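Deliverable D5.2: sample structural annotation.
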Amino acid sequence: MTRSRRRALLDAVIRDVCNGAESLSELDFAAACRARGLPTPSRQVLRRGPKGRIYLDVAWEDLGVAVEIDGAHHGWGLGAVEDALRDNNVRLDGLLTLRIPVLGWRMDQRAFMDQVERALVAAAERAELQKVRAS
């Protein structure tokens, strides 16, 4: 691409999409993580569940934390039931999963990012404590 006033934005979006972001909310989430100085999560992380493949929107697997960004379709029909079963399986495998509804993200992004940061800090502290105990 030649000169563009939006080149930095386009570069960031292209990097995000190439790294697995599948929605605008996931792109917003990635930008919010960068703005807070949080580690870069993996995207569209594949897990196995009783019914086959499970894709997590973002995860910090080394810390055992994941975030699901739920669009409106998660509340339609049996979506909430399917999400609960999937979420429970992921949690039973030891991964803390935070859920962020897109509407909530638009209304109070800061509050959700506070929770994400809190989960990551707590997970990092637990990991450090385990290292100390192991030595």
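Annotation notes: The helical segments are 7-18, 24-36, 79-92, 102-134. The chain has a mean pLDDT of 82.
The annotation will be released with the project's public dataset once the embargo ends.
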